[in-house]
UniProtKB/TrEMBL annotation, chain A:
One GO CC term on file: plasma membrane
Spans traversing the lipid bilayer: 60-87, 99-124, 144-169, 211-229, 249-274, 295-320, 362-387, 399-418, 430-454, 475-499, 534-554
Span of domain ABC transmembrane type-1: 65-270, 362-550
The protein's name: ABC transporter permease
Family: Belongs to the binding-protein-dependent transport system permease family. CysTW subfamily.
Claim: NADP is one of the keywords in the record: no
Bilayer disposition of the protein: Multi-pass membrane protein
Record carries keyword Membrane: yes
Gene3D superfamilies with a match to the protein in the record: MetI-like
Domain of life: Bacteria
Biological process annotations from GO: transmembrane transport
Location in or out of the cell: Cell membrane
Lineage: Bacteria, Pseudomonadati, Pseudomonadota, Alphaproteobacteria, Hyphomicrobiales
From TrEMBL, chain B:
Entries under InterPro entries matching the protein: TAT_signal
PANTHER family (alphabetical): ABC TRANSPORTER SUBSTRATE-BINDING PROTEIN, THIAMINE-BINDING PERIPLASMIC PROTEIN-RELATED
Biological process according to GO: thiamine transport
Organism: Nitratireductor aestuarii
A single MF term (Gene Ontology): thiamine binding
Presence of keyword Transit peptide: no
Keyword ATP-binding recorded: no
Listed Gene3D superfamilies: Periplasmic binding protein-like II (3.40.190.10)
Phylogenetic lineage: Bacteria, Pseudomonadati, Pseudomonadota, Alphaproteobacteria, Hyphomicrobiales
Superkingdom of the organism of origin: Bacteria
Name assigned to this protein: ABC transporter substrate-binding protein
Keywords: Signal
One cellular component (GO) term of this entry: outer membrane-bounded periplasmic space
Length: 562, 350
C-alpha cells in the first residue's frame, strides 16, 4: 500500500505539467523540425534539420546567441558581486528590522518588469537622473548611456538581483554564529572571515542564484528590447521577431531549442564547477581556504569600504528606479519615458482612480495570480510530501521534469502555445492563462514546500499519534501549522510570479483577458503615458502596507529560508 | 408531360422556397446584433483608443446595447494572434497597416471589403483594398530644422554629410521601415526589385544614432537630442511638432511621400458580422474622420467630408493628392519579407 502513496501524490502535478507544459514543448520541438514556415499547415510534417542548419551556418544567429550568453554571464557576475553585500546585510540585520529590510527585495519583485525597465530608462537617459546629478557638479552629460549593452546589463541586473540575493541570503543566514565566533577567536577580521568562512559556506546559494539569474537573463526580452533600443540583440528578441513579425514559427522554435540547450548546459557546468569547489559536501577531505598573510592588511583595510560601496550600489540599483517611477507618476509629461521633471500633476492618478484606466486589467491580474497561486500550491503540496516522505523509483527523473519549466525559456512555451491555440480553442482563456502561470510557479512552489516538509519535526507528529490523534487531526493540528511559513512563502512567491508574468502571457491574452503587465508592455512599445507609473506607484504603496501587516504575523525573512 | 396550371403554381412556389432558402440562411449567418453582444476590436492605444471610444463605441453601444472590448498595442501581436486563430477568431475587427491587411485577406484571415458597409461607396479606390482604409498616413523624412543647412527637398538629402551619425533609422520592415527602404530605391533610380542597391545606399548612412521602433521613442530621442532625423508618419510628427517641439520639420520630398494607410479589417469567421460592419461604418463617418484629422492629422479615406479651412493645408485631400502618394508593390515586398528582414538584421541594424 505504502508503495503507491508516493506516485499517487506525485500524479496531479505530473499530469498538469504534461498537459500544459510538455504539450507546447513538444509542439516547439516538432515545429523546429519543419523545413519551411506554414502558419496554416499541419503540425506534423516530415522532419528536417533545415532550421538548425540555418542557425549553425549563419554567423548572424551565432553572433546573437553568443552576445546573449556573454550578456547573461555579465548579468550573473554583476548580480553576484552586488548580491553578496546585500544578502550579508540582510542576514546580519536585527530581527526587528528584518521585515522592513526585506521589502527592499520584495517590492522590486512585485513591481512589474516593464515599469522597472522604464525606471532604468529614466535613470540613464540624457536628461535622466544620473546626468542631472553629475550636471550639478559640472560633469558634462553622458548622452549615450541608453541603448547599449551596459544599459541592458544594468536593467537585467536590477530585475534579477533579488533572486540572487534570496538564494545567497538563505545560506548566509544559516551559518551558525558559533562558526563566526570560532573564526573571530582565531583572529579573523570581519573581512577575512567573510572570504574564508561565509563565502565558501554560501557556495550552494551562489550556485542556485547563478543558475537562476543566468537562465532568466538569457531568456529575457522585455528589458533587452526597451533598454537595448534594437541596437542590442538577444536570442529571445530574435525568437519573438521570427514568431510574431515574420510568422516563421519553425525558426523561432529552433532558436528556442538552441536557447534551451545552452541554458541546460550552463546549469550543468555550474553544478559541476561548484560541486568541485565544495568537496566537503561529499565528505571528501578539503583544504581550508586561506588568504596569504601579505594580503590580509589590504583585505582588512579595503573590505569594509568596498562592501559598503557595493551595498550602497545594490540598494540604489534596486530602489532608485522605483523612486523614479514615483516621481514620474506626478510628472506632467506626455510620455512615460520622457525624462526630466516638467511640472507637477495629479492627472495620471485621476485616470487610474476615476477614469478606470487599467482597472479591468488590474483585476484580471489579481484574480489570475490568486487562482494560479492556489492551484500551484494545491499541486505542489502533495508532490512535496511525495518527495520528502514517500520515496519511490524514478523519483529523481520526475523531479528533473518538474523543475524543467525553470530551465526552459518561457518564450518557448509561448511559441508552442500560440500554435496549440488552434487545438485548444475550447479552453476558456482564463483557464488557459492559469494553466501556464501554474507552470511558471510550480518549480518554486515545489522547492519551497519540499524543504518545508523536510524541516517538519516528525517527533511532534509521533507524539500526537501516541496521544491518539488520527491522520486527519495530525495533518491539521501539527503538520499544517508547521508548514505555515512555507505555504506562506510559496503563496507570496507564486502570487508575485504570476502577477508580473509578461513573456508567455503576452502570447495568450485575448481582448477579454489582458493582464496588467501585458497591457503596460503592449503600450510601452507604442505610446505609454505616465498612467502606468501612477498605477505602479499605487501598487508599490500597497505592497509596503501589505508587507508591514504580514510582517507582524509571519517573519518575512523566513519566506525564502529553505 | 403537360404542365397544368396547378402544377406550375406548385413548381413556382417550390422554386421560390428553394431560392429563398439560401437567402434565408445567409441572413441567419449575419444575425442581427443582440443586446449584450460583445465586439472585440484590436486597435492602437493612446489617442486612437480615445477617438474610437468616443466616436465609434458610443453610438454603436447606444444603438445596439452591445459591449466593446479592446486589445491595444502595435499590429504585430494582434496579427500573429489573428493568424493563430484563423477561422475561429477572438477578434471581430482588427486594425492593420497597409501591407499586413492585404496579406491577411490573401491568407483568409480577414475579409475583402464589401458595400455591406454603407460608407464603402465613399472610399477612395486605394482605400478599398485589404479591408476598409480608415486613414491615409504618409511617411516622410522628419528632421530638426536647426541642424539642416537647407530644407530637405529630396529623399537623397539624407545622404548629406551633415546628418552623418544623427539619423535614427526606423526599425525593421514596418510601415516606416519599408517606406524608408523603398523610397531609397526610388530616389536612387531603382525599384522595389533592387534591394541590393537599397542595402548598399542605406549602409552608407551608418553609423546610426539609434534604431527607432515607435514614434513615441523617436520623439523622445528628438527631445533628448539623441538624433536629428528619421523617417516617420507625418501626422503624428505634426502633432508632436505643434505640441512639444517646434523645431521639427516634416519634409515634402520631390519624389513624394510614401503611402501608408491604417486599415480596419473584419475577421473571417467573426460571430458579429453586422456589428463589425456597423463599427467600420461609424469609423468612416464624418464626426470620427474629422476627429482623427483634428487630433492626429490623419487624412480621410472618404471623399465626401467638409474639411475645416484651417485643417486643409495639413492633410492629404482629394483624388489628385492621394494619387501622388507613392504606393509600392506590396506583393513583391510581402514575398521578399523573410529575405529582406534577414538582410536588414545583418547589414543595416547589425
Amino acid at each position: 500500500m505504502n508503495r503507491w502513496i508516493g506516485p499517487v501524490l506525485a500524479a496531479p502535478v505530473t499530469l498538469w505539467l504534461l498537459l500544459a507544459f510538455a504539450a507546447p514543448m513538444f509542439v516547439v520541438l516538432v515545429l523546429s523540425l519543419h523545413e519551411y514556415p506554414d502558419p496554416f499547415g499541419p503540425i506534423l510534417m516530415a522532419p528536417s534539420l533545415a532550421q538548425y542548419t540555418e542557425i549553425v551556418s549563419d554567423t548572424f544567429y551565432l553572433g546573437v546567441i553568443s552576445e546573449t550568453v556573454l550578456l547573461s554571464l555579465a548579468v550573473t557576475v554583476v548580480a553576484a558581486v552586488l548580491g553578496y553585500p546585500l544578502a550579508y546585510w540582510l542576514a546580519r540585520m536585527p530581527v526587528k528590522y528584518r521585515a522592513i529590510a526585506f521589502s527592499v527585495i520584495l517590492i522590486p519583485l512585485l513591481t512589474n518588469v516593464v515599469v522597472r525597465s522604464l525606471g532604468i530608462m529614466l535613470l540613464l537617459s540624457p536628461e535622466g537622473l544620473i546626468n542631472t546629478v553629475t550636471g550639478w557638479v559640472g560633469i558634462p552629460p553622458a548622452r549615450s548611456m541608453l541603448f547599449t549593452h551596459g544599459a541592458v546589463i544594468v536593467a537585467l541586473t536590477q530585475v534579477f538581483l533579488p533572486f540572487m540575493v534570496l538564494a545567497l541570503y538563505d545560506n548566509l543566514q544559516n551559518t551558525s554564529p558559533r562558526v563566526h565566533e570560532a573564526a573571530q577567536s582565531l583572529g579573523a577580521s570581519p573581512a577575512v572571515r567573510f572570504l574564508t568562512v561565509d563565502l565558501p559556506l554560501s557556495l550552494p546559494g551562489l550556485r542556485a542564484g547563478s543558475v537562476i539569474v543566468f537562465l532568466m537573463a538569457s531568456t529575457a526580452y522585455v528589458s533587452a528590447t526597451l533598454l537595448g533600443g534594437k541596437k542590442v540583440w538577444t536570442t529571445s528578441m530574435l525568437v519573438l521577431q521570427e514568431a510574431i513579425k515574420n510568422l516563421n514559427a519553425p525558426l523561432a522554435a529552433a532558436l528556442t531549442i538552441a536557447m534551451t540547450v545552452i541554458g541546460l548546459s550552463f546549469a550543468a557546468l555550474c553544478t559541476i564547477g561548484f560541486t568541485r569547489l565544495m568537496p566537503w559536501l561529499k565528505g571528501k577531505p578539503s583544504r581550508p581556504l586561506s588568504i596569504p598573510r601579505w594580503l590580509v592588511p589590504w583585505v582588512d583595510a579595503l573590505g569594509p569600504i568596498v562592501s559598503r560601496i557595493l551595498l550602497l550600489m545594490s540598494l540604489l540599483l534596486l530602489l532608485l528606479p522605483l523612486g523614479l517611477v514615483f516621481v514620474q507618476s506626478f510628472n506632467d509629461v506626455p510620455q512615460a519615458t520622457a525624462a526630466g521633471f516638467k511640472g507637477f500633476t495629479l492627472k495620471w492618478y485621476e485616470q487610474v482612480f476615476f477614469a478606470g484606466t487599467y482597472a479591468d486589467a488590474f483585476w484580471i491580474s489579481v484574480q489570475l495570480a490568486l487562482a494560479s497561486m492556489v492551484a500551484a500550491i494545491a499541486l505542489a503540496l502533495p508532490a512535496a510530501f511525495a518527495l520528502a516522505r514517500f520515496p519511490f523509483r524514478g523519483r529523481s527523473m520526475l523531479v528533473a521534469f518538474w523543475l524543467l519549466p525553470l530551465t526552459l525559456p518561457n518564450v518557448a512555451i509561448g511559441v508552442g502555445m500560440l500554435r496549440l491555440l488552434q487545438l485548444y480553442v475550447i479552453i476558456p482563456p482564463f483557464i488557459g492563462l492559469m494553466a501556464i502561470h501554474v507552470i511558471v510557479i510550480l518549480p518554486f512552489a515545489i522547492t519551497l514546500l519540499t524543504t518545508s516538509v523536510m524541516a517538519l519535526d516528525r517527533s511532534q507528529e509521533e507524539a500526537a499519534a501516541s496521544l491518539g490523534a488520527n491522520g486527519i487531526k495530525r495533518f491539521f493540528l501539527i503538520i499544517l501549522p508547521g508548514l505555515a511559513p512555507g505555504l506562506f512563502a510559496a503563496g507570496i512567491v507564486g502570487f508575485l510570479l504570476s502577477f508580473g508574468e509578461v513573456t508567455v502571457t503576452s502570447f495568450l491574452t485575448t481582448a477579454r483577458m489582458t493582464t496588467l503587465p501585458v497591457r503596460i508592455y503592449a503600450e510601452s512599445t507604442f505610446s505609454l503615458e505616465p498612467t502606468a507609473h501612477a498605477i505602479s506607484a499605487v501598487l508599490i504603496l500597497f505592497t509596503i502596507i501589505a508587507l508591514a501587516v504580514v510582517g507582524k504575523i509571519v517573519r518575512l525573512d523566513r519566506l525564502y529560508a529553505r | 408531360m403537360n404542365i397544368t396550371r396547378r402544377n406550375f403554381t406548385r413548381l413556382i412556389a417550390g422554386a421560390g422556397v428553394g431560392l429563398a432558402a439560401p437567402a434565408h440562411f445567409v441572413k441567419r449567418a449575419v444575425a442581427e446584433p443582440k443586446k449584450g453582444d460583445e465586439l472585440v476590436v484590436g486597435v492602437w492605444g493612446g489617442a486612437q483608443e480615445k477617438i474610437v471610444k468616443e466616436y465609434v463605441e458610443k453610438p454603436l453601444v447606444e444603438k445596439y446595447g452591445c459591449k466593446v472590448s479592446y486589445v491595444l498595442g502595435g499590429t504585430g501581436e494582434r496579427r500573429a494572434r489573428a493568424y493563430a486563430e484563423r477561422g475561429r477568431p477572438s477578434f471581430d475587427v482588427l486594425y492593420l497597416n497597409i501591407y499586413e491587411s492585404r496579406q491577411a485577406v490573401k491568407d483568409g484571415v480577414t475579409q475583402e471589403p464589401t458595400p455591406n458597409v454603407e460608407r464603402f461607396e465613399a472610399l477612395y479606390p486605394s482605400a478599398r483594398r485589404g479591408g476598409y482604409g480608415v486613414a491615409f498616413n504618409p511617411c516622410t523624412i522628419v528632421y530638426d530644422k536647426r541642424k539642416a543647412s537647407k530644407p530637405i527637398t529630396s529623399w537623397k538629402d539624407m545622404w548629406n554629410p551633415e546628418w552623418k551619425g544623427r539619423i535614427a533609422w526606423p526599425d525593421g520592415l514596418g510601415a516606416e521601415g519599408i517606406s524608408a527602404l523603398m523610397m531609397t530605391a526610388r530616389a536612387w533610380g531603382g525599384t522595389e526589385k533592387d534591394f541590393d542597391l537599397v542595402v548598399e545606399k542605406v549602409k552608407e548612412l551608418k553609423p546610426f544614432a539609434a534604431i527607432q521602433s515607435s514614434q513615441a521613442q523617436l520623439f523622445e530621442m528628438f527631445d533628448q537630442d539623441i538624433c536629428d532625423l528619421s523617417v516617420e508618419f507625418g501626422s503624428f510628427t505634426r502633432t508632436y511638432a505643434e505640441s512639444r517641439n517646434p523645431n521639427i520639420e516634416i519634409a515634402s520630398p520631390e519624389e513624394g511621400q510614401a503611402l501608408a494607410m491604417n486599415v480596419a479589417c473584419i475577421t473571417e469567421g467573426t460571430r458579429n458580422q453586422k456589428l463589425a460592419e456597423e463599427w467600420v461604418n461609424l469609423h468612416l463617418s464624418e464626426p470620427c474622420m474629422l476627429a482623427y484629422s483634428r487630433e492626429l492629422y490623419y487624412s480621410p479615406t472618404v471623399n465626401d467630408l467638409t474639411i475645416p479651412e484651417d485643417l486643409k493645408p495639413k492633410l492629404v485631400l482629394g483624388e489628385e493628392a492621394v494619387s501622388k502618394l507613392v504606393d509600392f508593390d506590396w506583393d513583391l515586398i510581402n514575398a521578399s519579407r523573410p529575405k529582406w528582414q534577414a538582410r536588414y538584421d545583418r547589414e543595416i541594424a547589425g
